[in-house]
Amino acid sequence: xxxxxxxxxxxxxxxxxxxxxxxxxxxxxxxxxxxxxxxxxxxxxxxxxxxxxxxxxxxxxxxxxxxxxxxxxxxxxxxxxxxxxxxxxxxxxxxxxxxxxxxxxxxxxxxxxxxxxxxxxxxxxxxxxxxxxxxxxxxxxxxxxxxxxxxxxxxxxxxxxxxxxxxxxxxxxxxxxxxxxxxxxxxxxxxxxxxxxxxxxxxxxxxxxxxxxxxxxxxxxxxxxxxxxxxxxxxxxxxxxxxxxxxxxxxxxxxxxxxxxxxxxxxxxxxxxxxxxxxxxx
Length: 282
What we know:
Radius of gyration: 18 Å
Distance between the termini: 50 Å
Number of helices: 10
Helix content: 25-40%
CATH architecture of the largest domain: 3-Layer(aba) Sandwich
Oligomer: single chain
């Protein structure tokens, strides 16, 4: 008998992956967490029925949410990461010797525990001495900070359940306050393709534009995310993500990446017309 996992993208579209084994199934205080092994994508983290990452393509998401801001400001030293319980974002950030301090705030400790046990590919750097873990509400945490961080990365789940509060004007205003005068905010920005996610993307961008003087969107192709076309938000008090990118400085680091490079960085901000129309609608 074959076992398949199916994620519903819309009421008319489903995405299925053949499963070898279910390694874990946990109902935390916040959400249902599953880990599956699959022949095509390796281990898969599923939360509330939605794929959060697979071992095969997680590098795309984690490289794009980290290396884009790090190449714009090579002097980033103190970082706040909200969400990111799988550890992949922290893994990429700890590759920079210049980074001195990372606060990671994840509301659900169970996600971290499950990933430490079953997905060490992403959770492998959570014990780095520069990383400080806080298991609490990211919205409440950032409210207590002012002029403290060079970079905030919001690596959240979709804007439902525990992730909903991370897509509000109040949250973005608190991030603005927590950032230094040249601070950068990056967040996962949903997909522009299916209507539900596209509407969430539009709302998030509209709210960020109200708070930050620089607010841009960039894209990546992530095969196991809804439609495969995924967006990230880049917001800053000062930096333009292309004009201020220090290509020479980033390339001199010699980081071995599988998806991100400085040429792709520039191209990622060149969006299709249908996305531009949605972003400029409001």
